[in-house]
Amino acid sequence: MPRIATVGDVNVDLIARIDRMPEMGKQVITRDFQTHGGGCSANFSLSCARLGMEVQLFGKVGDDVFGRYVLIELEDNGVDTKNVRMTEQKTGVTVAIVQGIERSFITFRGENATFCLDDIDVSKISADMVHLPSYFLMDALRDGYVKLIDLLHAAGVKVSFDTGWDPRGFIPETVEPLFRILPRVDVFLPNLDEARSILGLGPDVGPEKAAEILLDMGVKVVAIKMGKDGCWVADRENIEYVPAFQVKVVDTTGAGDNFNAGFISSYISGKPLRECAIIGSATAALKVGGIGWSTYPTRKQVNTFLADRGFKGL
């Protein structure tokens, strides 16, 4: 079976559901409060594991209640966490404020912000593909991405990449290094707003043009996500649109990571790009029906969902 590794952020999500935001100095009562594992790398690894893939996670957490909780959850779901460093500092935490299906976030990056190339023993990576998410949150790793990707390619390992959103507003300090990283990337999986912001494109520029620019930069495969509006997938031979599945949405947190997991699991299994996008979309569609890691779909659930709609599974 093809193997996957992911290098990046691991944290805990604290989710509160409210009807309205409190005024300054005031209080509101939450209708629900939940604790879940989080971080794009952790989300991706757990989704891959539930899809039946062998997956390693490389990251850093604190030796605290949050760090121990998240590692136990991952291990219980079949993720290899032996290469997640545990330190005396604090685990990253995101507080998610949910109103309806809209979300706002407050993030303490914790050890995610200090995780760097020196924390990664590349010789322990045993994978056909390494996924690198959350570029904009991994400050200490930013200068190490080029070297890390070069080391992986020298070992015959492919690399997928998803920057996520830049909370600083896509400033030159964070964006400019990407123009050395992206030409080295095998599979790039941004959403449309991220692709436009990275490339300096206006809101009128469509996903086809963004994909064309990224391919011209040297990216080998591009999948531009657009949520409920589907996605565009492209390589140097072809570009095509794949619609999303229409499902009831409860919570979209982690949907992009589940899409990535379905897409990459399919890609390294040798499936055509359109099938990769369909399987990614199905994985995300099943996830948004619930909250947290327990709702991440299994391989059987994804394959049944697809078979019921006339598509091939993973």
Describe this protein with a few key phrases.
single chain, 314 residues, nine-stranded mixed β-sheet, four-stranded mixed β-sheet
Topology:
Layout lengths: L2 E5 L3 E7 L14 E7 L1 H11 L3 E9 L2 H12 L3 E8 L4 E8 L2 E7 L20 E5 L11 H10 L3 E5 L9 H4 L2 H4 L5 E2 L3 H8 L7 H11 L3 E5 L5 E4 L4 E4 L12 H13 L5 H15 L11 H9 L7
Parallel strand pairs: 1-4, 1-8, 2-6, 4-5, 8-9, 9-10, 10-11
Antiparallel strand pairs: 2-3, 6-7, 11-12, 12-13
Task: Describe what you observe in this structure.
There is one protein chain. Helix content is 31%, strand content 24%. It is of the alpha/beta class and 314 residues long. A nine-stranded mixed β-sheet has the order 5-4-1-8-9-10-11-12-13, with helices on both faces. Helix 6 crosses helix 7, helix 8 packs antiparallel against helix 9 and helix 9 (273-287) crosses helix 10. The longest helix is centred in the last third of the chain and has 15 residues, at 273-287. The two termini are 12 Å apart. The relative contact order is 0.13.
Total strands:
13
Helix content: 25-40%
Q: Which outline best applies?
A: globular
Q: Number of helical segments?
A: 10
Question: What's the story with the biggest beta sheet?
Answer: 9 strands, mixed
